[in-house]
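Entry 14. Ran structure prediction on the chain below.
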Amino acid sequence: MNFEPHIAWRYLFSKKGHNAINIVSGISAAAVAVVTAAMICVLSVMNGFGALVEHMFSEFDPVLLVVPADGQTLRTDTAPIASLYAREDIEAISMQLEQTALIRYKDHQVPARVMGVDTLFKRTAHIDSIITDGFYSVWDGAFERTVLGRGLAAQIGMNAHFTGALHLYAPERTGRLNMLRPDLSLRHEHAFIAGTFAVNQIEYDDQVLLVSLPLAQRLFAYDEHTASALRIQPKSDKKSDIRSQKSAISKSLGAGYKVLDRYEQQADFFRILRIEKLLTVLLLVFILLIASFNIIGSLSMLIIDKREDIGILSHLGADEPMIRRVFLLEGWLISSLGSLAGLVIGVLLCLGQQHFGWLKLGSGDEYIISAYPVQVQPLDVLLVAAIVLALGFAAAYYPSRKIKVS
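Output, structure tokens:
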């Protein structure tokens, strides 16, 4: 039987010669617990906000998006694209043509991302769930319709109840520019507003308007077999199935195309989120490192207090490495108990916030949700535990190495 853990456990709870040692040890464990709980809470809140924004994007973005590897458009009448329509694991494929144009309503004009979509668009996006006014329609059988981002509609002074036409202008892709009459070098279309939508992301709400695919093809001078992307809705929404389908589709299409999942479609946002999470972890680790100095202090005081016990253990046959391991385990136990308490407190606080919403963001329409969102991820809990235990071990290692048996 190894006696080092037994003695270290006895030292942890036994009465010390000086009461200050008990106090400092308790403060050390409490400091580790507080920082550990803070790490769990902060990371869970960041996960919650990330999941919230991911859900917002998923209301508009398709599960998979096929785009050309080079250039802005792709042809839909080619053999690789035809192979997609023969796949049995795909529920719907929607064509999308997106480019920048100038839009005008009365005296207001702004540049916008005009997105032409076909009749299958609704099967690749939950557009009805994000309509804030009016209804979704890009063609009513008689007139061209448009659905604008809520911010974009505000910029040009429109809402879903206006009856005037919205005018769209795009430069001619072919031919020469008429320097005497530049207006003749612009293609012009118009549509009537049907509704507004809100993804609660500026790149959509303030920039995008949806029109029918034929209107976009006429506006940008493309034929019916030209699109900027294909929106794919697989039959299965399981992440493992989506990954395998993405890989299979990429292989079948070849090097001329790229297949993007939802994370890759919003790569900049998720990259920033990962960087923010990393910086937050590093900051909290630095705070934890400062808290770990308490362990060094309490362990150093304990070593001084137990000088007589060290001599007795030495005379009983314990060598210097064995005695060092006793105090190394003692310091690590202080850190371990603190980390365990912090993990339990942090997880309980997050679960409580998730179910009861104790901390509120505010009230009113300016907030998407009323309380701070949280999402506890097991990998984050394991990461925090590993970091705390590693720093606790390092903090205990330094004073234990200073033990000398005379």
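The first helix runs from residue 3 to 13. Will compare against last week's run tomorrow.
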